[in-house]
Amino acid sequence: xxxxxxxxxxxxxxxxxxxxxxxxxxxxxxxxxxxxxxxxxxxxxxxxxxxxxxxxxxxxxxxxxxxxxxxxxxxxxxxxxxxxxxxxxxxxxxxxxxxxxxxxxxxxxxxxxxxxxxxxxxxxxxxxxxxxxxxxxxxxxxxxxxxxxxxxxxxxxxxxxxxxxxxxxxxxxxxxxxxxxxxxxxxxxxxxxxxxxxxxxxxxxxxxxxxxxxxxxxxxxxxxxxxxxxxxxxxxxxxxxxxxxxxxxxxxxxxxxxxxxxxxxxxxxxxxxxxxxxxxxxxxxxxxxxxxxxxxxxxxxxxxxxxxxxxxxxxxxxxxxxxxxxxxxxxxxxxxxxxxxxxxxxxxxxxxxxxxxxxxxxxxxxxxxxxxxxxxxxxxxxxxxxxxxxxxxxxxxxxxxxxxxxxxxxxxxxxxxxxxxxxxx
Length: 425
Description:
Radius of gyration: 20 Å
Strand order of the largest sheet: 1-6-7-8-9-10-11-12
Oligomer: single chain
Strand content: 15-25%
């Protein structure tokens, strides 16, 4: 088996070949907020999302009926886009993995997730008129790819704030002809995801248990908050195992839990920040991940690093420790914080530089997180949405994002000369 991840080398190859992979950070690049002027809150209507209540008192097969019916066309477009491209085509390792998963009896996979979640998947397939096998495989998609930025910060008054960009769609087909603003193309899966975004309140007995930002057709939880208790976001992590334990889980008696079903379980049952951190740290992980947690008390923030086939965290990077060392935030992209990020995808350095330039004394919650997450390369051509959270009050906002252009662009119509990565809405 290769000593580095397949995705690592795909990204390096794409960068060397000049693909507009992300609005990439150049080696040694630092904070770019001044080159990405933006205001908070944004005012453009096409950034907002609809809201739905998910009634957990309904039979599992009926919980997603309205959403799956409403987004039927988009869900089928998204799944077909993913399956047709298989993140690089059928001759790639991931392409073979997707084919292998599709060849597995979907009933076996449904048994693996348990009857409640299996019922929800069956309901989505029914109301979206989607093949049940495709609906099932789609639930494992975040085990396979994703690129993100998450930040938890504490202001001068001791209040915690949490923000994230969710980036998705790398190597899922590139359309060179449909780009905006004079720049060629878009990642096709990223473009298929944005129309499926909505915010949700998960309710039982008429009471909201937690709130999340969702993609229609997906029952797991990537970004969510439980008011007055905690918030969480999930970032992808890459290691040398790639598909090993996912295939074992799908084809054998190997036991484990899909990442975003484990986070959903924690949101349903955890009664404190410490309880939630413990739950996401100790479930039997199928794939590697970073789970970024925020609480409501000073110092409550952490990046939980998970390796596959384990029931203990590889590392827990605490905000409390950062505060003791003179910082006021933790920031995670998609690489272990104790290692240097690769030079072809260093979103960490510019993001941390922006946060340090702001400083805790001047840090202004949502407004400053928005500025940092709107600056390239943390906002990039794979970014689907930005989410901001005040865990104590439960105030949360989500906005669709689009980055058009790449480094070296010559300008966006109507915006004057523009040299850096993103013209945004």
